[in-house]
Amino acid sequence: MPQSSQASLWNALSATEDLSARFVYGAEASIALGDLVAGSTLYGRGDELRGLSVLVTTTNQLTTASALIELDGIVRRIVLCPPDLPLELLPYVIDSADVDAIVSDRPMLDLEIPRAVCLVPCSHEIVPEKCERSAQHQTEWILLTSGTTGLPKLVVHTLTSLAGAIETNSTSADGVIWSTFYDIRRYGGLQIFLRALLTGTSLVLPGAHESPADFLSRAGHHGITHISGTPSHWRRALMSSSAHLIAPRYVRLSGEISDQAILNNLRSQYPQARIAHAFASTEAGVAFDVNDGFAGFPASVINDTPHVEMKVEDRSLKIRSDRNAIRYIGDSHILKDTEGFVDTGDIVELRDDRYYFVGRRDGVINVGGWKVYPEEVEAVINRHGEVQVSLVRTKKNPITGALVVADVVLKAPSQAVDHDGCELKHDILLLCREALSPYKVPAVINFVPALPVDETGKLARRHA
């Protein structure tokens, strides 16, 4: 991929051979990569946006894909709006990112814009583009991620930092068809989108309102070989009657802690596949992946990962590489420490020369002064053969300040009906007592039909 200040996604793709034989398959429509690269969704108005800060907010992933290819290198800044961002937060994003223009395929007449911003309509139909696309900027890509105040944090990347982990000169892409449960307007989905484009492979994208069963059926129809998602995505997929319709060679998990139970279940469902779990975040970028079939990662990963520096301080994993985001927009958040490391906020624990993720620093439950990381308790509960997935949360208590409560989804819900599930609850508690300190053992276990999953594909802990 070009590394100069004049580099752009369009330049890189234009140098890729045989794009006409590769496709991006959406739920409603599909397009050859060659047509996507040569096409436009902006009604020929791309030239008007040169040098501007442009917010892209679309309802269709193919429309987003076309706009990204067309605008990178042309505009000063692309602000990529996730599909679930409430419209009332758009003025905050527009003001924070100094947005000059909005590219959208939806009506904006009722939107209160804090200052003069040009509205540029885009179409779901991608037509041949005739404008000059010479790159003039190293465009900043702004991704939105959750903020602790309820307002999104605006994370600055470049195409170079986003594509830093992608090997574009590899022949291993032959015969590969990628797919992902993620939306490409988020970091996880954008990584797979760029990987497919820059390596010249086809890509199957999920529909906005497509059920897991329908998506897996369509992915199987297109013969996907490589597929990524969060552990929560995969738990839902394995519960689907369509799980057997795909036969991947490579299954990738990221975005949440991959416990041993989900890794074992995927190995059982897809014995022919290589099962990998990766550590990546919007701020830290792609750091490493683990391919040995076990939860956690070998201690050697800290010092022996090419192109990535890592260290553990105060049990928190810190990462420095050219894949890191550049900065946050605004002064309220600091991305990197004085040495240039991004503190991921992910707490790890070393056991027998292997690190295990135990939870997020900002998700800890305080039980009488003792710290409980929900993910650590969930990993134990999920080991039980009858458990599909669990979510550990807190409940206020006048004595200890908080109690640990576990909501549990069973593989066979009828088990919970028999004798009110008392025997099964006893078995789960026994498993917890054998593996956890007493203060970490749930005081209450609830059997529930399902757990909330947010738009990123992760368990919705803000609802817990």
3D architecture notes:
The protein has 464 residues and is of the alpha/beta class. Among the domains are: 1-15 and 33-165, ANL, N-terminal domain (Rossmann fold, 3-Layer(aba) Sandwich), CATH 3.40.50.12780; 364-463, GMP Synthetase, Chain A, domain 3 (2-Layer Sandwich), CATH 3.30.300. Helices cover 23% and strands 28% of the residues. The protein is built from 13 helices and 27 strands. It has helices spanning 9-14, 33-38, 61-71, 90-96, 159-162, 187-199, 212-221, 231-239, 260-269, 301-304, 374-381, 414-417, 422-435, and strands spanning 23-25, 30-32, 39-40, 53-57, 77-80, 101-104, 118-121, 127-128, 140-145, 153-158, 177-180, 202-204, 226-229, 250-253, 274-281, 285-290, 297-298, 308-313, 316-321, 327-328, 342-351, 354-360, 365-367, 370-372, 387-397, 401-410, 444-447. The strands form 6 sheets. Strands 2-1-12-11-13-14-15-16 form an 8-stranded mixed sheet. The protein has a 7-stranded mixed sheet with strand order 7-6-4-5-9-10-20, sandwiched between helices. The protein has a 5-stranded antiparallel sheet with strand order 17-22-21-19-18. Strand 11 (177-180), helix 6 (187-199) and strand 12 form a beta-alpha-beta unit. Helix 8 crosses helix 9. The chain is globular. The two termini are 43 Å apart. Mean pLDDT is 90; it is low at 1-6.
In short:
With 464 residues, the protein is of the alpha/beta class. It has 13 helices and 27 strands. The protein is globular and about 70 Å long.
